[in-house]
Structures are given as C-alpha cells and as structure tokens.
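> call design_seq(struct)
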C-alpha cells in the first residue's frame, strides 16, 4: 500500500498543475488585461536570488560576530575542567 503513495502524490500534483495551467489559459482568453498584469509580476527566480543574497549576507554577519562572542563567553566562564 505504501508503494501507491508516491504515485498518488505525483498524480495529484500533475492534475493540479494542469488545472492551474488551464485556468491561466482561460484567464488570458477571457480577460487579457488581468493576464497582462500577472505577466508583469516578479518572477520566482528573481525572488529566490534576492532572498539568497539576503541570507548569505546574514550568515556572513553571524559568522563575523559569532567567533568574537564565543571567545568572549569562554573567557568569562574560565577554563573548563573535566571531572
């Protein structure tokens, strides 16, 4: 029975994408103005690139300040002794 789950999910995603494509095609036919607005929106690759750049900058900032805070915390705590 578990062998059917991946096939079922794939079929559902395929059906969903076909329905979405059909509704977008119908919109373009019935309401070209609304379809043209949709075409002017920001594309996903641009959004992903923007977020990736922000994430990398944040990680770089954390790495730069993280080493200092770890060293400071270790020096405040003193040497660690194993018991």
């Amino acid at each position: 029975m578990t062998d059917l789950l991946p096939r079922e999910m794939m079929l559902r995603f395929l059906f969903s994408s076909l329905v979405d494509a059909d509704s977008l095609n119908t919109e373009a036919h019935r309401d070209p103005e609304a379809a043209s607005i949709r075409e002017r929106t920001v594309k996903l690759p641009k959004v992903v690139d923007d977020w990736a750049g922000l994430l990398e900058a944040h990680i770089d900032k954390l790495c730069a300040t993280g080493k200092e805070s770890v060293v400071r915390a270790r020096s405040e705590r003193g040497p660690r002794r194993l018991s």
